[in-house]
Design goal:
With about 230 residues, this protein is of the alpha/beta class. The chain contains 6 helices and 8 strands, in the order βββαβααβαββαβα.
Length: about 230
């Protein structure tokens, strides 16, 4: 599920420091940059994959904050799905998004990109009317169980007016293909949701930047380009 390993497509990670406050974050790029981007990782946390992506975006002129929703919960004992889910279940989602919202305000963030769990947080930011440019990769529109759960996106996405770019795979066995189809129906009736579904790809498809399959690699490259354009970094 999602991104547990580094990508050769991205440059070597070059964090410039860290920030603590409403959330803990690694910082990439120039803190005085006009574009300030938050990256919200999946259940594996701010690992080498996301650090490489953050370094890439910083190279395009942004200050990138790679936030850590798992701060205080310890490092993963091993990069396995079981260990990642065990730690994920300790995160209080609503409280985490409250902190994320405050962090964005404190740092003057202009764009937010979330993946899987982070993509679900992007849905919630759209519900709250966030002013940042919002990009979500493979979030869960049906919602996610939690001890402090967020509203289910399907309950509000038809009426949200906050623009968001939503990048989904057509063969998403984690989110569920039926839920991707339902999301497409909702997006077709709401111009605020700019949805792109990559028919051949599966969950975590940005990792296909390293794929030998030309179609899957092209899907990942197109999605990354759309993401960067939405953030004003193209």
């Amino acid at each position: 599920m999602c991104h547990g390993a580094a990508s050769a497509y991205f440059p070597a990670p070059e964090p410039k420091g860290s920030v603590s406050g409403a959330m803990e974050s690694l910082v990439f790029g120039d803190s005085n940059a006009d574009k300030k981007i938050v990256l919200i990782p999946d259940i594996y946390g701010p690992n080498a994959f996301y650090q490489g992506l953050a370094t890439r975006l910083a190279g395009k002129g942004a200050c990138v904050y790679l936030v850590n929703p798992f701060a205080g919960l310890g490092e993963l004992p091993e990069a396995t799905r079981e260990a990642a889910f065990a730690r994920r279940h300790e995160v209080r989602d609503r409280q985490c998004v409250d902190s994320l919202e405050q962090f964005c305000a404190d740092q003057g963030v202009t764009g937010v990109v979330g993946f899987c769990l982070g993509g679900s947080y992007v849905f919630e930011l759209s519900r709250r009317g966030a002013r940042q440019n919002l990009v979500g990769f493979y979030g869960f529109p049906q919602g996610m169980e939690n001890q402090d759960p967020l509203d289910k996106p399907f309950d509000y996405l038809s009426t949200t007016t906050t623009p968001q770019l939503c990048l989904m795979p057509g063969q998403d066995q984690s989110v569920g293909v039926d839920n991707v189809v339902k999301l497409a129906e909702v997006a077709a009736a709401n111009d605020a949701i700019d949805l792109h579904v990559y028919t051949e790809s599966g969950h975590g498809f940005l990792a296909d930047l390293d794929s030998d399959d030309a179609v899957l690699r092209s899907n990942a490259e197109q999605a990354l380009a759309r993401c960067e354009q939405a953030l004003g970094l193209d």
